[in-house]
Design brief:
About 40% of the residues lie in helices and about 20% in strands. The protein is of the alpha/beta class. The radius of gyration is 20 Å and the shape is globular. The model has no long low-confidence stretch (mean pLDDT about 95). The protein binds 3-isopropylmalic acid and magnesium ion.
Length: about 375
């Protein structure tokens, strides 16, 4: 089959890891006879430098015509001035909004071979396997008003946390659909004891639950969820939450898997259902780690696993997705590690070597 993909490597280690994701994708193409037609574009800081904007209208338009988008990372100290008119992150937010990618899936899975390299007790994290569904195009990130101004008594700023019932309904449905294919337990995270938007969230989630009698719905307050994630992570199966809570909780949850360098993500424009291909953007959950850029150090596994998610959700290539996932597992089992997951007695490799090893395994 033939697919058109946009590749937006971005800043910092973004290009380092995106290269390895593409390497593995090409190995899949060779083995299974698919042709991936790749178009590279700029996003983030590099786009600000070369195109004067973090995401050009052209790039956005091109992405819309493709089957899926693979993204590295955006941001860096060079563009971090709080006074700056445009920031690399604006490019990412514009892409999410412009492509209607309201559902951000972030699976948190502990690889058995990495259990000893995390900071948590093996007994607590062994067998952890859940998925976060983060709302991605609403809430505090996009609500208006959003600005800073001068008053007679000093500066003031506002951000707005707003959700419509339609926005809540569609994201909660993603949670229910995923839960249906898993352990049939959905946790909806909010702050309904304080926030009005959360009270609406809770009402809508409860209404949608009537369409999914086979799935158990539990409401959990966000502070309690933060605590539970560390205390008993095995408790979770599918978690659905609003944009900002999801941003914070998924960084926390990534530590259960040993490193941010291990966690992939999918941002989808629809509700994932078996047999249906959904347009999506795929990126590692980690940032651009500018200090490690170009040093052949970064762990490419999060990006490679994001490629697997792309094969599964946007291209409908399930067997191919599984092939990538088992190749990652196989290479880890053989003892190869990047610096962030390095452990005694293991073999330390760089970004490219890790990509080569995984692509080699995919090749058969
Ligand atoms: C993430 C990142 C982004 C976010 C940043 C880079 C804008 O932290 O994908 O979690 O806050 O959504
Ligand atoms: Mg984040």
């Amino acid at each position: 089959m033939q697919f058109n993909l946009a590749v937006l490597p971005g800043d910092g280690i973004g290009p380092d890891v995106a290269n390895e994701g593409i390497k593995v994708l090409q190995a899949i193409g060779n083995r299974f006879g698919h042709n991936f037609n790749l178009q590279y574009r700029l996003i983030g800081g590099v786009a600000i430098d070369k195109e004067g904007t973090a995401l050009s209208p052209d790039t956005l338009k091109m992405c819309k015509g493709d089957d899926a988008v693979l993204l590295g990372a955006v941001g860096g100290p060079k563009w971090d001035d709080p006074q700056a008119k445009v920031r690399p992150e604006d490019g990412l937010l514009a892409l999410r909004k412009g492509l209607g990618l309201f559902a951000n899936l972030r699976p948190v899975k502990v690889f058995p071979v990495l259990i000893d390299s995390t900071n948590l007790k093996p007994g607590v994290i062994e067998g952890v396997d859940f998925i976060f569904v983060r709302e991605l195009t609403g809430g505090l990130y996009f609500g208006r008003p959003k600005r800073q101004w001068q008053t007679s008594r000093g500066r003031r700023a506002v951000d707005t946390l707003t959700y419509s019932e339609q926005e809540i309904e569609r994201i909660v449905k993603v949670g229910f659909e995923l839960a249906r294919g898993r352990r049939k337990k959905l946790i909806s995270v909010d702050k309904a004891n304080v926030l009005e938007s959360s009270r609406l969230w809770r009402q809508v989630a409860t209404e949608v639950a009537k369409e999914y009698p086979d799935v158990e719905l539990e409401h959990m307050l966000v502070d309690a969820c933060a605590m539970r994630l560390i205390q008993n992570p095995k408790y979770f199966d599918v978690v659905v939450t609003e944009n900002t809570f999801g941003d914070i909780l998924t960084d926390e949850a990534s530590m259960l898997a040993g490193s941010m360098g291990m966690l992939p993500s999918a941002s989808l424009a629809g509700v994932p259902q078996e047999g249906v291909n959904i347009f999506g953007m795929y990126e590692p959950i980690h940032g651009s780690a500018p200090r490690r850029a170009g040093l052949n150090m970064a762990n490419p596994i999060a990006t490679i696993l994001s490629v697997a998610m792309m094969l599964r959700y946007s291209l409908g290539l399930i067997k191919e997705a599984q092939t990538v996932e088992s190749a990652v597992d196989g290479v880890l089992q053989q003892g190869y590690r990047t610096y962030d997951i390095m452990d005694e007695g293991k073999t330390k490799v760089g970004t490219k070597e890790m990509g080569d090893l995984i692509a080699g395994k995919v090749g058969g």
